[in-house]
Amino acid sequence: MKLSEIKEILPTLENVEFQLEDGTFVPEHFHVTEVGEITKKFIDCGGVIRNEKVVNFQLWNADDYEHRLKPGKLLNIIRLSENKLGIEDAEIEVEYQSTTIGKYDLEFNGKHFILKNKKTACLAQDACGIPSEKPKVKLSEIQSSSCTPNSGCC
Q1: DSSP letter at 82?
Q2: 113-117/18-20 β-pairing
Q3: Digit-coded pLDDT (tens) for 93-122
Q4: Structure confidence at residue 129 (pLDDT)
Q5: Residue whose C-alpha is closest to residue 77's, from 10, 1, 2
Q6: Inter-CA distances, 136 with 125, 133, 139, 141, Å
Q7: Given its phi and psi angles, is residue 53 left (phi above 0), alpha (psi -120 to 50 degrees) or beta?
């Protein structure tokens, strides 16, 4: 989800709710402690230099159980970040701590925001030498003339 998309969704909501893919919700007393832009410059395993830019939201739970972040407040935080930091419209990445700090993609299911698990991947698959899919072979169809029962090869 891009920053422009969340800015369109927020005014239509009464509450801001984040849900993990496993169905559990981020506690409703969460804070958005950071909104920023992260730029990553790196080289992939194929030797290609790459640049990625994401808008980063950091969610944090405190012991102030009466705290509730309303959609208008989050929208104001986003606008302030755009104005002060010059944040561009980019994909949103959410940081949230469970057992460790996790990074998530963001989607909206019509009611709440879904923190989608991110996965690693090779960006230079043509240079890796890893086949896109392993061939499927049935062992019963493999014929070997060199090793038969009672031939002494096993």
Answers
A1: H
A2: parallel
A3: 999 998 889 999 999 999 999 999 999 888
A4: 72
A5: 10
A6: 20, 9, 10, 11
A7: beta
Domain layout of the chain by residue ranges: 3-120
Residue with tokens 């057992």: 99
Query: Looking at residue 63, what is its pLDDT?
Result: 84
For tokens 């012991």, name the residue: 63
- Joined together, the tokens standing for residue 62 give 């405190």
- Cα–Cα distances in angstroms (integers) from residue 16 to residues 9, 110, 112, in the given order: 10, 12, 7
Q: What angle do CA 108, 66, 37 make, to 5 degrees?
A: 45
Distance CA 114, CA 16 (A): 11
| pLDDT(29) > 70 | yes
Short-list 57, 106, 108, CA closest to 78:
57
- Interatomic CA distance for residues 17 and 153, integer angstroms: 64
